[in-house]
Known about the structure:
Radius of gyration: 17 Å
Helix content: under 10%
Number of strands: 20
Order of helices and strands: EEEEEEEEEEEEEEEEEEEE
Number of helices: 0
Strand content: over 45%
Oligomer: single chain
Distance between the termini: 12 Å
CATH topology: Neuraminidase
Strand order of the largest sheet: 1-20-19-18
Shape: globular
Structural class: mainly beta
CATH superfamily: TolB, C-terminal domain
Amino acid sequence: MSTILKLELESRCSIKNKKAGLSEPSGLALAPDGSLWTVCDENRRLFRIDFAGQIQESLEIGNRGLEGIAFDAEGQICVVDEDVSKIIVYDCQTGKEILNRRLQDLEGFASIAAHFEEIDGNGLEGITFDTMHNELLLLKEADPGLLIAVSADLERITSVEILDEQKGFTAEGKKMDFSGMCFDAKRDLLWILSEEARCVFTFDRRQSRVVQRHSLKKNQQGRSIRYAEGIAVDKNSERLYVVSDDDAKLTVFRIVEC
């Protein structure tokens, strides 16, 4: 990709609402209708929020330990459960569970089984839907970081990539980790967050390498993003949304092509 992308800070707001149970968001996604959804790992609810951080709707679900959220080709909500390495699909209208699949039950799991024997908090951390290849992509946090492609019917693992320094993932002396990702259909790229590195990478699956690295540390306005846990890009790829865990803040960037 020859185009250089820059992120310009546009806005920032709190989405914290302890009374409603929204305090430590751990994932972020844009629905097909353009609405913004988040999930928290400490409660049993999914939240639809507006771009000012206000809760518009919440769905009660039956699971905790959820670490990522995405929408599949049919507009259903897909999440990952870090504790048991599982994908769960919910109806976006009712929150009713449609199906769930343990990673270990998928065809092809044997190739990555050794990386899930003792995850110790380094399990599945993110999920997104690749609309160009009709695949769900799963993100393993660390030791090692993995990008796992799963068929849309949740029956088999179609490919696995180790996300390491050779592919361009570096944390400037810190331990590399991954905390969220989203698919950019306009550019056929992944935006991948690292909480420890305090940055977001653009990753090209075709070339299997990082294209750019964007710092989330202090910018010209003196602001930085801590505890980045969820990321989403709008359908026109003009805005990038990042949600923070402990701070419970939603940050909006404008994506500028240079």
